[in-house]
Amino acid sequence: MKIDQAVGLSVAFLKGNLLWSHGFGYADLENKVPAKPESSYRLASITKTFTAIAIMQLAERGRINLQADIRTYVPYFPRKKWPIPVRLLLGHLGGISHYRNYAVEGRIKEHKNTREAIAIFAGFDLVAEPGTKYHYSSYGFNLLGAAIESASGLSYGEYITKNIFLPLGMKDSRMDDPLEIIPNRVRGYQLINGQLKNSEFVDISSRFAAGGTRSTVIDLMKYARGIIQQKLLRPASWRQMFTSLAIRDGYFTGYGLGWNVRPWQSHFQASHGGSQPETRTYLLIFPTENFALAVAANLERLDLRPYFTRLAELVLDEDLDLEVYCPQKEDHLIYQTIAQTFYYGLSQYEWRHSPLTSKPQELSRAFNYFNRHLNRRFIAQDWAKAKKKIDDGFHPRGSQKMIKVGTWMAYSLAHAKGEAALRQYHRRGPLAFFQDYLQLQKEKSFPLRYFPLESSLKNLVAKWQKDWQEVYTDELRHLWISPATDFEQLWPVLKEKFARSSLYPDYTRQFARVATFYLRRKQAEKALSLLKHSLELYPQSTAALTHLAQAEFWVGHTQVARKLYLRAQAINPQAPELNVSALLRFASQLEKGQRQQPLKAFITLAIELHPRQADLWEKAGDIFFRLGEKKRARQYYRRALQLDPQRKHLWEKIKKT
After folding, report:
1. Is there a contact between 143 and 55 (Cβ–Cβ < 8 Å)?
2. pTM recorded for the entire structure
3. At residue 21, what are phi and psi to the nearest 5 degrees?
4. Which segments of the chain belong to CATH 3.40.710.10?
């Protein structure tokens, strides 16, 4: 908490019949009121999970048709270019815009009823034809909230209280209301230029079904237990909610009906986070393992990942933030594919209790696809093409061939070793999973059909497993990097261990977190030194390159930073650190930190990296407008409009320039 300047934090977890909860820091800093498990936090977007369950309940009762146009239930919402199915809204595929001008839409002070909340975005054009693009949208969930009211005859708050909170005993859960006396309500805080300040007051009734609730971590554990026990809905509805949707082009989004459902390493999980004025929240559920945790904090923009990750690691006795680095680019892609095949394979098998397919012809095609594309020679010929083919194999576009391989391997190992032994792979990892599957070929009495892996892949897995057992010692397994770490002692140890191995653990994320702490303390040299050492350990890591680049931007070394970003792009243009969302987030950080010159240089670079992304051109226009450079802002707005003529709201921005 010291690293992040966090004020108050409440946490809880359940594992089987065990429930634990605790509070840290202050719910009210000025009056020194301690945070506790009963502290009441704004839940922000965790609210979307309540909305999704309510829609599914009404669908089960025949009051809502998931395939129907949302206007069937909200007729006062204007007709758009295409119908908007309810089901697609639940998965952020409905084409509804998110906030367009957060400085206005995100800072509303007065109470809004449902019609007034819908009116805020009713005139916005769709951002895409429904089903063709994942576009996270709180407004889409407000539409679903209006549909709940129409179909049930109750207000949104009345419906979720009667049908979710009360059945699960969630007595401290409610709609947020600034006028009500709410026991244990926390105060919210924000950081401005590294200084702790009170949060700006915002009335969140305008986002009622997307982020308008308040609760405690204790109540969230009651909620999680109800979900694990499949209360509130029929089993088929839960399965539907926890299945990722896919866009029309055949790619999974990782988001089901109101829940994030991308596996966390090899665990099947359903989760949702929340972020808004006064709060950060996170709810994680491993339904097949009877495990859940909740974290809530009263500092805006606080990164909760280190908190819930560390807690889950301690409870499950696993390394859940482990990442692996291979110095050779081709090897790194092969390892990542092996790991993803393991993650999706084991998690899906445990959730489904069966392989994705047991048809011999489908499995033969899947294993042939796996062997053909995890070949060093094939990858070296055209790395980008190989990566796309591999990525396609995890999606409907590629018939989920990689996932078919993974679930069949899990099914085979469960038959050979038993379900209890299968669960041990969560701790043992992907190389042990693959190595043990390879050993099944030697067991003549094995009752299932064995599908072989290519011989060079067998040899590579064997070498990696040997190297990994040597490099990933207990010392590194329990390494937790913080400002208290003795880096002068750590660097020689890591360099010596890593120099002898073909793969080794990747700590770039932890190094970056400590570097951020140094930057907040205005210790730029320590931050840059740390990130340069990180890059020495991981020279082909796009994460290490972009972390250092961002620090260089922060201190004003814009040319150095630019070169680092271009190096990262040359290694992997599709790296997550280089996607539009990541670039927009860092631009916002620079703007909030009042780094004007680095901000100008960075947004110009972002456009250079993605010259046809209207989001970046519009963001650049907003930045230069706020900096008083209206002529330049107008140029960026016009270019955004050329790229996306549907952004008619840009005409209003152009008029202001």
Report:
1. no
2. 0.92
3. -150, 155
4. 8-316
